[in-house]
Amino acid sequence: MTSVSQFSDATLDPPVRGFLHRPESPSGEALILTHGAGGNAQSGLLVAVAEAFAGAGFTVVRCDLPFRQLRRIGPPRPGDAARDRVGLNNAVAAFRKLVSGRIFLGGQSYGGRQASMLLAEPIDGVKQRADGLLLLSYPLHAPSRPDQPRTQHLPHLQVSTLFVHGTRDPFGSIDEIEAARKLIPAKTDLLIVEGAGHDLGFKGKSKREELPAKILEVFRAFFVRE
Question: What is the widest separation between alpha-carbon atoms in the chain?
Fold first, then answer.
């Protein structure tokens, strides 16, 4: 049985705010999840993934990015991205106080992109910010704009990365995601979700009941301790 409660650390700027899933038998490992440009921490996909991982012993937090903390609706504005990455970095810092094991950073669409950009930034003499990356529906390019791929930072990504992507995602085809994986020098894998669009089958009240457990299964196999 897991418990869910609101989470806040206002000692950091920007603050970390969201919902904390505490497992009954914690493994010492954690997963930080965040949302897409049009969503928030209450996204159905994030809730379902958080519940699956918490049931397996992960301490999980679903975070509202700084732009969403300031505005309840609407997409991020130009200039928000850098502060959103600082917010994710703060979330990792906050969780270093809560867990003793590995910390994984994950996000849906925009949130995943910002997480990947954060982990691609160089760090001098400091422990890597997170131990792995989970990208749910990575927005490889805007719909109908494959000539403008969002891949510039991928060659600098030094952490193992798991992609979860639908075969009908207008933000990137499976072939395009496969090509993007080859740009990353670290280990990568791809879980293909047949017939799913950018929402991975979680839109409104609809949901793919089996998907969170599948993500967990592939994630644990991919990030197995050596």
Answer: 47
Q: What single letter denotes the amino acid at residue 82? A: A
Answer whether 0.85 is exceeded by the pTM.
Answer: yes
For 97-132, letters b (16+ CB in 10 Å) and e give: ebbeebbbbbbbbbbbbbbbbbbbeeeeeeeebbbb
Which pLDDT score is estimated for 205? 75
Torsion of CA 92, 24, 44, 86, to 10 degrees: -10
Average pLDDT score over the chain: 94
Helix 44-55 and helix 211-222, axial crossing angle in degrees, nearest 10: 50
Nearest to 31, CA basis, from 66, 63, 61: 61
Gap between the Cα atoms of 62 and 21, Å rounded? 8
Place of tokens 């510039």: 152
Return the structure tokens found at 15: 């603050």
- What pLDDT band is residue 128 in, cutting at 50, 70 and 90? low
Residue with tokens 């679903």: 62
